[in-house]
Design brief:
This protein has 250 residues and is mainly alpha-helical. A two-stranded antiparallel sheet has the order 1-2. Helix 5 crosses helix 7 and helix 8 crosses helix 9.
């Protein structure tokens, strides 16, 4: 009778270990490689962010170009003052020619204006608007007698009404600072009347005549005092000229 061969029995411990190993292998086979996927996802996320900022940069660049073009169009008169048969005449060309013709005179005027404004501010003098309005009215009346209007006169002088007011305020304030040093004596009036008899009006009384002469002498001496005051300001000021202009004619 043939002898039966007994197959060896697996122990419970061996079976359990095998099952665990098989389960791990099955799980590993089903589970994708997470490191590769994470790299791919990271690449796509970076590409998306880079694309977003790239598009945004293009939009910003386009907007900047449009803004520059709009500004150039709006400010074309600032850069170009005329076009002759397609050839532009630039504003700085006009400015250069004007500087050659009267640059030093304009610079001196601006220096004096700055000195006067500084002195007025330091002295704390403020213009009386009522006095300024009265002077403008007086100017208008004088122009009306000459058949002109204030607007026409200002246009001819290249001034605005605001600039006229500012000039009158400076003049009025300067007068207040030097007025105390200006006097007109009766002897000066007598001397003027004696030396200018042939030019005196004949339809005025003696008192009116003396009042008119006093006002004329006072105005003349006041202008001289302001001129001397300005020269004193210049002599005491520290003025640094960064550009020298050649006098007209040289």
């Amino acid at each position: 009778m043939p002898r039966k061969t007994r197959s060896p029995k697996k122990s419970a411990r061996s079976t359990t270990a095998t099952s665990v190993l098989a389960a791990r292998l099955a799980t590993a086979a089903k589970k994708p490689n997470t490191s590769v996927i994470e790299r791919l996802l990271g690449f796509f996320r970076f590409s998306r962010v880079r694309g977003f900022f790239g598009q945004r940069r293009n939009v910003i660049f386009t907007v900047v170009i449009l803004v520059i073009l709009i500004l150039l169009y709006l400010l074309k008169s600032v850069l170009i003052v005329a076009v002759v048969n397609g050839q532009p005449i630039y504003r700085w060309t006009v400015v250069t020619q004007l500087e050659k013709q009267g640059g030093q005179q304009m610079l001196d005027s601006l220096v004096v204006e700055a000195l006067v404004k500084q002195a007025i501010k330091s002295a704390g003098v403020e213009a009386d608007q009522a006095e300024i309005d009265a002077r403008i009215t007086e100017i208008e009346n004088q122009l009306t007698q000459q058949g002109m209007t204030l607007e026409t006169a200002l246009e001819q002088e290249g001034l605005t009404r605001r600039e006229l007011e500012d000039n009158l305020k400076l003049q009025w304030a300067a007068e207040q600072l030097v007025a105390s040093s200006v006097t007109v004596s009766e002897e000066e009036i007598d001397t003027y009347l004696e030396n200018n008899q042939e030019f005196l009006p004949t339809d005025m009384t003696e008192e009116e005549l003396r009042t008119t002469v006093r006002e004329q002498l006072y105005s003349s001496k006041l202008s001289e005092a302001i001129g001397q005051w300005v020269e004193d300001l210049r002599s005491k000021a520290q003025i640094l000229y960064l550009k020298e202009y050649q006098p007209v004619g040289f």
